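Run Transcriptional regulator through structure prediction, thanks.
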Amino acid sequence: MTTTDPTVDDDLTPTATVPLAEVDPARSRHAGRRSAVALVDGADGPLAVAGLADGSLVAVGPDGDERWRHVPEMAGSVVTLVPFGNGVLAGERGAAGTVRYHDTATGDPRWRHEAATDVGAPQRESRFYLPFVVSAATTTVDGEPRAFVAVRRYERTGEPSPRQFESVVYAFTPDGTVAWRQAAAASPIAVDAAGGRVAVAYNRCPDPEAHDDGLVVLEAADGTERLRWDPADAMAGPPGQRRVGDVSLTPDGPVLASHADYRGYALGREGDVRWRLDLARPVERAVEGGSDTVYAYPNHVHATAMGALLVTGNTYPEDGRETAARHPREHTAVGVDPDGTERWTASVGGFATGIGTDGTHVAVPASQHFRDRDATTHAVQQVALAEGPTGARTTDGIATCAATADGLVAAVEEPVVYHDEGVEHGAYRLHLFEA
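Sure, done. The structure for Transcriptional regulator is below.
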């Protein structure tokens, strides 16, 4: 197994940097997603489409020239973007939880669906309570493109749990028809689609009487349930409220990141465990005056028949929320062979809000490290499933989302001000690179 240190060599080649808009800078704590980016096919080459905090969409060619911009009158932040058919599907975090479909050539909106009609209106007009289009994935069903979109809404209630989620997974046809939907009283965090199936990862299940499984696999054609699985099925003891952090489908079955026991799992198509890998399990670390037991969540996974890549997040202590300790595998990408053997590990430098994938490669954007608050770690890293890191580029602000396809990388940078420094780093802009 090879291990790569966190040094960024700046060996991704910049091709364009495009200002996006004005936005309030992020602060020391993670503010959540408010931007998205996708690479789509345009008439004269690839387009990088950025979704902005004000709900706008901006399409930029590989030369950095703006091709089109759509500015809606009222919209939530665009937090999810995927190519779909001849357009791009955009999902918002906003009062309506809107899913929008835009023409790739012009940016014109073709249809919209307000998920709040299914998950409900926000209990409060604050970010955490707004309906949230969490994730989307596409595949074909009987030769027709189909998009699968997961939406959730959070609220605080009384019994049986002070926390409650309403969520829905949609199957959309290109004309905006809802082919099927599945609701759940749980919090979806990721969806993936391939080989005629759809996998939905549920992160929080606060009411086990209503929903008690971290993974549900459905038929892409009609939503028929094919598999339910939970980390509790493979670990000793109850999993708690957090279950699964991400899922990726392979021909052999789903590969997932478990928030319940900080491991990676590969399942067979019937739910049997093919392999299990310790990623950021609790370890004891010395701190002033004693020790803390700390862990880190594995937040992202991308898997193919060639193997898998998993990315871990921040260090947390088992007791309380603050710690001076650092887990040795926080902010780490781990490459895994198809049989579950670790192939390589590499630091990604900071918290990755999301990853961009194109099959054999993954783009990892490093957002802030809220404990150390080190601006020198802000970067975008390109990683190959088989070999590990293949290129990187530092950014002044925090890199919050990225996409990669055919040797191109697109990333959105957002400004940040750390509370104990008072300096604004970076700006709201779109970067284009050649890998």
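The chain has one domain: 2-434.
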